[in-house]
Protein backbone atom coordinates (compact mmCIF):
# COMPACT_ATOMS: atom_id res chain seq x y z
CA UNK A 1 0.00 0.00 0.00
CA UNK A 2 1.29 3.44 -0.93
CA UNK A 3 -0.31 5.35 1.95
CA UNK A 4 0.53 4.87 5.61
CA UNK A 5 -2.74 4.21 7.45
CA UNK A 6 -1.27 3.77 10.90
CA UNK A 7 -2.87 1.23 13.24
CA UNK A 8 -5.83 3.37 14.30
CA UNK A 9 -8.03 5.70 12.30
CA UNK A 10 -11.48 7.23 12.58
CA UNK A 11 -14.61 6.52 10.49
CA UNK A 12 -17.27 9.21 10.17
CA UNK A 13 -20.07 10.01 7.75
CA UNK A 14 -19.02 12.65 5.21
CA UNK A 15 -21.64 15.06 6.52
CA UNK A 16 -19.99 14.95 9.95
CA UNK A 17 -16.49 15.72 8.72
CA UNK A 18 -14.91 19.15 8.46
CA UNK A 19 -11.42 20.55 7.91
CA UNK A 20 -11.38 21.69 11.54
CA UNK A 21 -12.15 18.17 12.79
CA UNK A 22 -9.48 16.74 10.48
CA UNK A 23 -6.85 19.07 11.91
CA UNK A 24 -7.62 17.93 15.46
CA UNK A 25 -7.73 14.25 14.52
CA UNK A 26 -4.31 14.59 12.91
CA UNK A 27 -2.98 16.44 15.97
CA UNK A 28 -4.18 13.61 18.23
CA UNK A 29 -2.10 11.14 16.23
CA UNK A 30 -4.69 9.11 14.34
CA UNK A 31 -3.38 7.69 11.08
CA UNK A 32 -6.38 7.87 8.77
CA UNK A 33 -9.74 9.57 8.36
CA UNK A 34 -12.30 7.33 6.65
CA UNK A 35 -14.99 9.24 4.77
CA UNK A 36 -18.04 7.10 5.46
CA UNK A 37 -21.19 6.50 3.50
CA UNK A 38 -21.16 6.94 -0.26
CA UNK A 39 -19.28 10.17 -0.97
CA UNK A 40 -19.96 11.51 -4.48
CA UNK A 41 -17.56 10.80 -7.32
CA UNK A 42 -16.09 14.31 -7.28
CA UNK A 43 -14.54 13.47 -3.88
CA UNK A 44 -14.41 17.17 -3.01
CA UNK A 45 -14.73 16.25 0.67
CA UNK A 46 -11.41 14.37 0.42
CA UNK A 47 -9.72 17.42 -1.10
CA UNK A 48 -10.97 19.62 1.75
CA UNK A 49 -9.66 17.28 4.45
CA UNK A 50 -6.28 16.80 2.79
CA UNK A 51 -5.86 20.52 2.10
CA UNK A 52 -6.44 21.29 5.78
CA UNK A 53 -3.90 18.76 7.07
CA UNK A 54 -0.28 17.88 6.43
CA UNK A 55 0.30 14.17 6.95
CA UNK A 56 -2.82 12.18 7.82
CA UNK A 57 -4.20 9.75 5.23
CA UNK A 58 -7.78 10.11 3.97
CA UNK A 59 -9.69 7.07 2.70
CA UNK A 60 -13.19 6.56 1.33
CA UNK A 61 -15.31 3.98 3.08
CA UNK A 62 -16.80 3.55 0.50
CA UNK A 63 -17.48 4.96 -2.97
CA UNK A 64 -20.52 3.02 -4.18
CA UNK A 65 -20.01 1.19 -7.48
CA UNK A 66 -23.69 1.36 -8.39
CA UNK A 67 -23.92 5.11 -7.82
CA UNK A 68 -20.72 6.45 -9.37
CA UNK A 69 -19.05 5.26 -12.55
CA UNK A 70 -15.42 4.20 -12.48
CA UNK A 71 -14.26 6.77 -15.02
CA UNK A 72 -15.52 9.71 -12.93
CA UNK A 73 -14.07 8.27 -9.74
CA UNK A 74 -10.73 7.66 -11.46
CA UNK A 75 -10.55 11.30 -12.57
CA UNK A 76 -11.00 12.40 -8.97
CA UNK A 77 -8.41 9.88 -7.80
CA UNK A 78 -5.79 11.22 -10.22
CA UNK A 79 -6.54 14.82 -9.20
CA UNK A 80 -6.13 14.01 -5.53
CA UNK A 81 -2.95 11.93 -5.71
CA UNK A 82 -1.31 14.53 -7.96
CA UNK A 83 -1.86 17.12 -5.24
CA UNK A 84 -1.42 14.86 -2.20
CA UNK A 85 0.74 11.88 -3.20
CA UNK A 86 0.81 9.02 -0.74
CA UNK A 87 -2.07 10.32 1.38
CA UNK A 88 -5.21 8.98 -0.31
CA UNK A 89 -6.81 5.53 -0.35
CA UNK A 90 -9.77 4.86 -2.63
CA UNK A 91 -12.19 2.49 -0.94
CA UNK A 92 -14.90 1.11 -3.23
CA UNK A 93 -17.71 -1.40 -2.83
CA UNK A 94 -21.12 -2.58 -3.96
CA UNK A 95 -22.99 -1.58 -0.82
CA UNK A 96 -26.16 -3.58 -0.14
CA UNK A 97 -28.94 -4.83 -2.43
CA UNK A 98 -31.66 -2.77 -0.74
CA UNK A 99 -29.97 0.45 -1.89
CA UNK A 100 -30.52 0.10 -5.64
CA UNK A 101 -32.85 -1.70 -8.02
CA UNK A 102 -29.83 -2.40 -10.25
CA UNK A 103 -28.19 -4.68 -7.67
CA UNK A 104 -27.52 -7.88 -9.61
CA UNK A 105 -24.57 -10.24 -9.51
CA UNK A 106 -22.57 -8.09 -7.08
CA UNK A 107 -19.38 -10.12 -7.48
CA UNK A 108 -19.44 -9.57 -11.25
CA UNK A 109 -20.00 -5.87 -10.65
CA UNK A 110 -16.95 -5.70 -8.38
CA UNK A 111 -14.76 -7.47 -10.94
CA UNK A 112 -15.94 -5.25 -13.79
CA UNK A 113 -15.53 -2.07 -11.76
CA UNK A 114 -12.01 -3.01 -10.70
CA UNK A 115 -11.21 -3.75 -14.34
CA UNK A 116 -12.43 -0.29 -15.28
CA UNK A 117 -10.42 1.40 -12.54
CA UNK A 118 -7.36 -0.51 -13.70
CA UNK A 119 -7.86 0.72 -17.28
CA UNK A 120 -8.15 4.26 -15.93
CA UNK A 121 -4.77 3.95 -14.21
CA UNK A 122 -5.89 3.65 -10.59
CA UNK A 123 -3.06 1.87 -8.77
CA UNK A 124 -4.11 -1.26 -6.89
CA UNK A 125 -1.77 -0.15 -4.09
CA UNK A 126 -4.07 2.86 -3.51
CA UNK A 127 -7.26 0.82 -3.59
CA UNK A 128 -9.25 -1.19 -1.02
CA UNK A 129 -12.46 -3.15 -1.39
CA UNK A 130 -15.41 -3.35 0.99
CA UNK A 131 -15.61 -7.07 1.75
CA UNK A 132 -17.42 -9.34 4.19
CA UNK A 133 -17.80 -12.79 2.62
CA UNK A 134 -15.09 -15.13 1.37
CA UNK A 135 -15.40 -14.35 -2.35
CA UNK A 136 -15.16 -10.59 -1.81
CA UNK A 137 -12.31 -11.00 0.66
CA UNK A 138 -10.34 -13.12 -1.80
CA UNK A 139 -11.01 -10.59 -4.56
CA UNK A 140 -9.78 -7.78 -2.31
CA UNK A 141 -6.54 -9.65 -1.74
CA UNK A 142 -6.07 -10.50 -5.40
CA UNK A 143 -6.98 -7.17 -7.00
CA UNK A 144 -6.44 -4.44 -4.40
CA UNK A 145 -4.25 -3.54 -1.43
CA UNK A 146 -6.78 -5.13 0.90
CA UNK A 147 -10.21 -5.33 2.50
CA UNK A 148 -12.32 -2.86 4.48
CA UNK A 149 -15.00 -4.84 6.37
CA UNK A 150 -17.80 -2.85 8.03
CA UNK A 151 -20.01 -3.79 11.01
CA UNK A 152 -17.86 -6.68 12.13
CA UNK A 153 -16.33 -8.21 15.23
CA UNK A 154 -12.86 -9.42 16.11
CA UNK A 155 -14.08 -12.94 15.31
CA UNK A 156 -14.76 -11.82 11.74
CA UNK A 157 -11.33 -10.19 11.58
CA UNK A 158 -9.68 -13.44 12.66
CA UNK A 159 -11.63 -15.40 10.05
CA UNK A 160 -11.02 -12.78 7.35
CA UNK A 161 -7.27 -12.91 7.94
CA UNK A 162 -7.34 -16.64 7.28
CA UNK A 163 -9.14 -15.95 3.99
CA UNK A 164 -6.95 -13.13 2.66
CA UNK A 165 -3.67 -14.48 4.00
CA UNK A 166 -0.66 -12.52 5.14
CA UNK A 167 0.53 -9.36 3.43
CA UNK A 168 -2.97 -8.14 2.54
CA UNK A 169 -4.33 -5.07 4.30
CA UNK A 170 -7.24 -5.79 6.65
CA UNK A 171 -8.91 -2.62 7.94
CA UNK A 172 -12.19 -3.27 9.78
CA UNK A 173 -14.51 -0.63 11.22
CA UNK A 174 -15.49 -0.75 14.90
CA UNK A 175 -18.28 1.28 16.51
CA UNK A 176 -17.68 2.51 20.06
CA UNK A 177 -19.68 4.22 22.79
CA UNK A 178 -17.74 5.93 25.55
CA UNK A 179 -20.31 5.16 28.22
CA UNK A 180 -19.95 2.96 31.30
CA UNK A 181 -23.66 2.38 31.90
CA UNK A 182 -24.58 -0.63 29.72
CA UNK A 183 -28.24 0.28 29.28
CA UNK A 184 -27.46 3.84 28.32
CA UNK A 185 -24.77 2.66 25.93
CA UNK A 186 -27.17 0.25 24.25
CA UNK A 187 -29.80 2.97 23.90
CA UNK A 188 -27.20 4.94 21.94
CA UNK A 189 -25.90 2.04 19.85
CA UNK A 190 -29.00 -0.01 19.09
CA UNK A 191 -30.72 2.49 16.73
CA UNK A 192 -27.51 2.92 14.74
CA UNK A 193 -26.90 -0.83 14.44
CA UNK A 194 -30.47 -2.01 13.94
CA UNK A 195 -31.54 0.61 11.41
CA UNK A 196 -30.57 -0.10 8.76
CA UNK A 197 -27.93 -2.80 9.20
CA UNK A 198 -29.93 -5.57 10.89
CA UNK A 199 -32.43 -5.27 8.06
CA UNK A 200 -29.86 -5.57 5.26
CA UNK A 201 -29.25 -9.02 3.86
CA UNK A 202 -25.48 -8.79 3.37
CA UNK A 203 -24.85 -7.76 6.99
CA UNK A 204 -27.37 -10.25 8.37
CA UNK A 205 -25.83 -13.09 6.35
CA UNK A 206 -22.38 -12.14 7.61
CA UNK A 207 -23.53 -12.17 11.23
CA UNK A 208 -25.14 -15.57 10.77
CA UNK A 209 -21.93 -16.85 9.20
CA UNK A 210 -20.18 -15.81 12.42
CA UNK A 211 -22.63 -17.81 14.51
CA UNK A 212 -25.15 -15.16 15.55
CA UNK A 213 -28.71 -16.52 15.68
CA UNK A 214 -32.00 -15.25 14.31
CA UNK A 215 -32.91 -14.38 17.89
CA UNK A 216 -29.75 -12.28 18.25
CA UNK A 217 -30.57 -10.33 15.10
CA UNK A 218 -34.33 -9.92 15.68
CA UNK A 219 -36.07 -7.02 17.43
CA UNK A 220 -33.21 -4.56 17.15
CA UNK A 221 -30.49 -6.97 18.16
CA UNK A 222 -29.77 -8.83 21.38
CA UNK A 223 -27.77 -7.06 24.08
CA UNK A 224 -24.88 -9.42 23.36
CA UNK A 225 -24.87 -8.55 19.65
CA UNK A 226 -25.15 -4.80 20.25
CA UNK A 227 -22.30 -4.97 22.76
CA UNK A 228 -20.11 -6.75 20.19
CA UNK A 229 -20.87 -4.41 17.29
CA UNK A 230 -20.62 -1.22 19.38
CA UNK A 231 -18.07 -1.68 22.16
CA UNK A 232 -18.91 0.39 25.25
CA UNK A 233 -17.30 1.27 28.55
CA UNK A 234 -14.61 3.60 29.80
CA UNK A 235 -11.69 4.53 27.56
CA UNK A 236 -9.58 1.57 28.66
CA UNK A 237 -12.39 -0.92 28.05
CA UNK A 238 -13.22 0.51 24.65
CA UNK A 239 -9.54 0.55 23.70
CA UNK A 240 -9.33 -3.17 24.53
CA UNK A 241 -12.24 -3.80 22.19
CA UNK A 242 -10.49 -1.91 19.41
CA UNK A 243 -7.18 -3.68 20.01
CA UNK A 244 -8.97 -7.03 19.83
CA UNK A 245 -9.14 -6.55 16.06
CA UNK A 246 -5.38 -5.96 15.88
CA UNK A 247 -4.77 -9.06 17.99
CA UNK A 248 -7.06 -11.00 15.64
CA UNK A 249 -5.03 -10.02 12.58
CA UNK A 250 -6.12 -6.54 11.50
CA UNK A 251 -3.49 -4.12 10.26
CA UNK A 252 -5.64 -1.06 10.95
CA UNK A 253 -8.91 -0.37 12.78
CA UNK A 254 -11.13 2.60 11.96
CA UNK A 255 -13.14 3.69 14.99
CA UNK A 256 -16.63 5.15 14.63
CA UNK A 257 -17.69 7.15 17.69
CA UNK A 258 -21.37 7.03 18.67
CA UNK A 259 -23.73 8.79 18.84
CA UNK A 260 -23.23 10.05 15.29
CA UNK A 261 -24.93 13.40 15.87
CA UNK A 262 -22.70 14.46 18.77
CA UNK A 263 -19.23 16.00 18.66
CA UNK A 264 -16.91 12.94 18.46
CA UNK A 265 -13.80 14.70 19.71
CA UNK A 266 -14.24 13.90 23.42
CA UNK A 267 -14.34 10.20 22.51
CA UNK A 268 -11.40 10.43 20.15
CA UNK A 269 -9.35 12.43 22.64
CA UNK A 270 -9.97 9.88 25.39
CA UNK A 271 -9.14 6.95 23.11
CA UNK A 272 -6.00 8.64 21.78
CA UNK A 273 -4.54 8.45 25.29
CA UNK A 274 -5.12 4.69 25.33
CA UNK A 275 -4.43 3.70 21.72
CA UNK A 276 -1.93 6.11 20.22
UniProtKB/TrEMBL annotation:
It comes from the Bacteria. InterPro entries: Bact_Lucif_Oxidored, Lucif-like_OxRdatse_MSMEG_4141, Luciferase-like_dom, Luciferase-like_sf. GO terms for molecular function: oxidoreductase activity, acting on paired donors, with incorporation or reduction of molecular oxygen. One of its GO terms (cellular component) is cytosol. Residues 20-116 form the Luciferase-like domain. Gene3D superfamilies: Luciferase-like domain. This is Putative F420-dependent oxidoreductase.
